[in-house]
Amino acid sequence: MRLGCVVPWFWVFRVLVLKSPASAAGAWRRATFSQHVELDENGKYHLRWKHDNTTITFEVEVETRGYVGLGLSPTGSMAQSDMVIGGVANGRPYLKDYNTLNFDGKLNEDHRQDYRLEYGMENNTHTIIAFSRDLNSCDHKDKIITDNTVRVIWAYHPEDVKQDRPQYHLTNRGRKSLYLLNPVVDAFIPNDVLVFNIRHYNVSIPTKDTTYWCQIFKLPNLTKKHHVIRVEPIIQKGHEHLVHHILLYQCHSILNDSALDVGHECYNSNMPDDFFNCESIILAWAIGGKGFSYPADVGLSLGTSADPVYVMMEMHYDNSNYREGYVDSSGLKLLYTPVLRKYDAGVIETGVWVSLYHMIPPDMSSYISQGHCSMECLQEALSQEKASGIHVFAVLLHSHLAGRALRIRHFRNDVEQPLLAHDDEFDFNFQEFRYLKEERVLLPGDSLVTECQYNTTFRSNMTWGGLSTKDEMCLSYLLYYPRIDLSRCESLPEIAPQLKFIGVKEIYHPVM
Ligand SMILES: *[C@@H]1O[C@H](CO)[C@@H](O)[C@H](O)[C@H]1NC(C)=O
Ligand SMILES: *[C@@H]1O[C@H](CO)[C@@H](O)[C@H](O)[C@H]1NC(C)=O
Ligand SMILES: *[C@@H]1O[C@H](CO)[C@@H](O)[C@H](O)[C@H]1NC(C)=O
Ligand SMILES: *[C@@H]1O[C@H](CO)[C@@H](O)[C@H](O)[C@H]1NC(C)=O
Ligand SMILES: *[C@@H]1O[C@H](CO)[C@@H](O)[C@H](O)[C@H]1NC(C)=O
Ligand SMILES: *[C@@H]1O[C@H](CO)[C@@H](O)[C@H](O)[C@H]1NC(C)=O
Ligand SMILES: *[C@@H]1O[C@H](CO)[C@@H](O)[C@H](O)[C@H]1NC(C)=O
């Protein structure tokens, strides 16, 4: 959402005039906001916001009588950031636009003040201020707000700003990645919704950085069709950083109750054979996500012969501090209902097939891998079942620690369409299904390319495709309706050109 920056000269020198209702005593009304998040762990800093095509409006409500700060940062640290700081002093709200672009990293007041104070108030315990700005303020000292991941930084202080320079903010600060411009989806959940929890039980987390833990579960025994309409994570308290992502796979119908064993580490030699019968991903959650609601006319079908009976939950534990003694019982909560919706949802996994053939050389600041969902593959599945196409409504972009930007390119008969999804500021610690602004129809004759851009500047070894967070993946999950019989559409990089690229001149053993 890059808007033009041709600004008539007289706007540039426009002086910010506070709207009169901005006084604490004035007759302003608190606006209503479509989005809300608690930025700190103790629920003291609330951020609310809403946006239209050109502007974004924030309201911060913080348990302090001093100043509050909000910033947009390239990395999550305070350096190189766009900051706004405000509060209420002597009954009057104040607000100023700053940046930390200088080498010293200190706050500098922006020459152009692009944040507009809307209102402010404080009582004995809390400060509330609301302010807005253009998504692209046309000031190079402000960050352009796009639909990429945005690393929001926050701070507050017990005292107001004095002598025009905010005091150091002590420990009351932090960061959180958000999608500020995500479409808001009305998540209507009826009162009589049914709940089914899928949880691991007291898994002892090994003392190593990456563990994939798998267990097969049986879905509720239903005598008629139901729709799952929302999925929420159940994260054991204190394990918010340990549980990195959760995938739910549908298992083949040949399984029976003998598959319902205890959990096992997945992808190692002790893994039960039954796990290989669970291949199609039907749900995905990743760290930072809150939960996911299906669109109002779509649900995940349960209870018919085509539906999953057994599912495997794969949980990725990221114990990067090698801490001993974690015992975890996290999982997923499915909200489902017998009141059927019009369409069944499906998921397609596309991108680079996870294998050692996926290679990323070291010391590359921008290396791109591509995974193809070919025209033939899509065409075969679509023309047999849905010649009128399928509607993609949400996607999850997935790579590991070296991933910087991901995008899904969409071609129709080899003519490129607008990007299906992209994130140029990918954050490994914040991955969840994101709604598309508009549903995208995939027709026979279409193909997709998932592109992942990696930065391996500080790596001295090759990075390979694999399951550990230090290995890489390049995947996207497409949530769509109506469901067709296609769960994976991926490609393997060709090995010979890659070996040539990294300087291999001769191969003595066949590479297989
Ligand atoms: C915002 O943009 C979309 C498409 O880009 C357009 O359909 C819509 O009318 C615009 N809304 C407003 C309020 O300008
Ligand atoms: C002060 O404002 C906060 C935030 O709106 C509110 O939750 C709290 O109840 C208020 N306290 C009093 C004493 O009114
Ligand atoms: C998990 O362990 C705790 C503490 O030992 C125990 O209270 C709880 O019942 C266990 N849960 C299950 C499902 O075994
Ligand atoms: C599922 O429910 C049906 C009807 O209540 C019952 O007949 C059947 O035995 C149940 N199956 C299992 C495996 O519990
Ligand atoms: C259940 O599956 C196991 C192996 O997957 C098989 O050995 C067993 O016979 C099956 N039991 C029934 C009742 O079908
Ligand atoms: C790659 O990462 C290094 C180290 O974090 C950084 O200095 C460099 O700017 C990055 N390159 C790109 C293209 O993002
Ligand atoms: C790189 O690979 C070598 C050889 O396998 C290994 O000894 C070394 O520890 C690796 N370095 C890193 C940083 O992983």
TrEMBL record:
Keywords: Copper, Disulfide bond, Endoplasmic reticulum, Glycoprotein, Membrane, Metal-binding, Monooxygenase, Oxidoreductase, Signal, Transmembrane, Transmembrane helix. CDD domains: DOMON_DOH. PROSITE patterns: DOMON (PS50836). It comes from the Eukaryota. It is a single-pass type I membrane protein. The keyword Repeat does not apply. GO terms for biological process: dopamine catabolic process; norepinephrine biosynthetic process; octopamine biosynthetic process. GO terms for molecular function: copper ion binding; dopamine beta-monooxygenase activity. Its cofactor is Cu(2+). Pfam families: Cu2_monoox_C, Cu2_monooxygen, DOMON. It is found in: Endoplasmic reticulum membrane. Residues 1-24 form the signal peptide. SMART domains: DoH. The keyword Signal applies. GO terms for cellular component: endoplasmic reticulum membrane; extracellular space; secretory granule membrane. Belongs to the copper type II ascorbate-dependent monooxygenase family. This is DOMON domain-containing protein. It comes from Scyliorhinus torazame.
